[in-house]
């Protein structure tokens, strides 16, 4: 499975960005897709996840109310709409696939990872 992220960039505080991640290769019928981020000098942290049915979503407390995750199963693509961005949202954002999701908010649950896309929020 290959994951390719896009949509990162530089934005001012209060602005918005939409990240996309498309998976290719083998697909799964009951997976979860998630977004994580890693800032310099910090560990990779959970941001949001969505199960195959699209109706079950998870968010980190730090992004609730500002970020929205969604997926298009026909395109095997997951999106992250990020609004009201803050400088502390600056990080490399990674998408990932959790083939047999049990704890889709944890890094260790995920099986496949993308290369990441940089998001920089200026103050």
Describe the structure.
The chain is mainly β and 123 residues long. Helix content is 0%, strand content 50%. It contains no helices and 11 strands. The chain has strands at residues 2-6, 9-12, 17-24, 32-38, 45-51, 57-59, 67-72, 77-82, 91-98, 112-113, 117-122. The strands form 2 sheets. Strands 2, 4, 5, 6, 9, 10 and 11 form a 7-stranded mixed β-sheet that branches. The chain has a 4-stranded antiparallel β-sheet with strand order 1-3-8-7, with no helix packed on it. The protein starts with a strand and ends with a strand.
Features:
four-stranded antiparallel beta sheet; seven-stranded mixed beta sheet; mainly beta; single chain; globular
Q: Can you give the helix content as a percent range? A: under 10%
Sequence stretches where pLDDT stays below 50 over 5 or more residues: none
**What is the first-to-last residue Cα distance?**
37 Å
How does the major sheet shape up?
7 strands, mixed
Share of residues in strands: over 45%
Q: Radius of gyration in whole Å, from Cα?
A: 13 Å
The tally of helices reads 0
What is the β-strand count?
A: 11
Tertiary shape: globular
| Average pLDDT for all residues | 94
State the secondary-structure class: mainly beta
**SSE ordering:** EEEEEEEEEEE
SSE order and pairing:
Elements: E1 2-6, E2 9-12, E3 17-24, E4 32-38, E5 45-51, E6 57-59, E7 67-72, E8 77-82, E9 91-98, E10 112-113, E11 117-122
Parallel strand pairs: 2-11
Antiparallel strand pairs: 1-3, 3-8, 4-5, 4-9, 5-6, 7-8, 9-10, 9-11
Brief sketch in words of this structure:
The protein is 0% helix and 50% strand. The chain is mainly beta. The termini are far apart.
